[in-house]
Amino acid sequence: RKEVEQDPGPFNVPEGATVAFNCTYSNSASQSFFWYRQDCRKEPKLLMSVYSSGNEDGRFTAQLNRASQYISLLIRDSKLSDSATYLCVVTVNDYKLSFGAGTTVTVRA
Amino acid sequence: SQTIHQWPATLVQPVGSPLSLECTVEGTSNPNLYWYRQAAGRGLQLLFYSVGIGQISSEVPQNLSASRPQDRQFILSSKKLLLSDSGFYLCAWTRGGTTNEKLFFGSGTQLSVL
Fold it and tell me: What is the mean pLDDT of each successive set of 10 residues along chain A, which is 109 residues long?
């Protein structure tokens, strides 16, 4: 079983729509969770950390479900600029982070 | 503020040639340093990480090696490149002396082995 698994998508949504997707992880001892955004042929950039109680950053909401071992990302009021690949990242041990293969989101006008 | 520099941005190399990619971090001391590779349409694969000068942990057996000759310098090398070494190589850092920290990436090197 992969350490981190994501639905690759693509999720094609119109501007203004809400889109949500999950990521599952296999290591129940994982301590930290992040969502990164990656544009084509660019480096991944941190979108947000994911906290146990769930957290929001503008139009983005992240949730953590430790019992079922998944995290989620919800994007409200989608913008064209939200089109990207979203990477789920989970700590494996003190120094290692494992990446999902990414979920592609395409927002159309 | 902290910055990470990685070069070159693109590289085209023939099979069997050597490789040297360099990465430096500024504005922090004793960072944890990482090399990742991303094949086309795939996720990031951790190749090496280092928690201090001269300390290298290898994650996958391969014909690549890494070195950390200075605190904020991380080098990825190969003596003879294979076609399968093509990919997008990313250097990254996290704060040293801490665990479970977020990663910050360099701008990446697109390597094509022909």
Answer: 88 97 93 94 94 93 95 98 96 85 96
Kindly list the residues from chain B whose CB atom is less than 8 angstroms away from the CB atom of residue A32.
100-102
Distance from CA of A44 to the nearest CA of B (A): 7
B88: number of Cβ within 10 Å: 19
Neighbours of A8 (CB within 10 A): 15
B56 close to A (CB below 8 A): no
Q: Which residue has the tokens 């942990």?
A: B57
Residue A32: which residues within 8 A CB-CB, separation 6 or more?
A49, A90, A91, A97, B100, B101, B102
Q: Name the nearest CA neighbour of B90 among B45, B42, B59, B25.
A: B45
Distance CA A12, CA B59 (A): 35
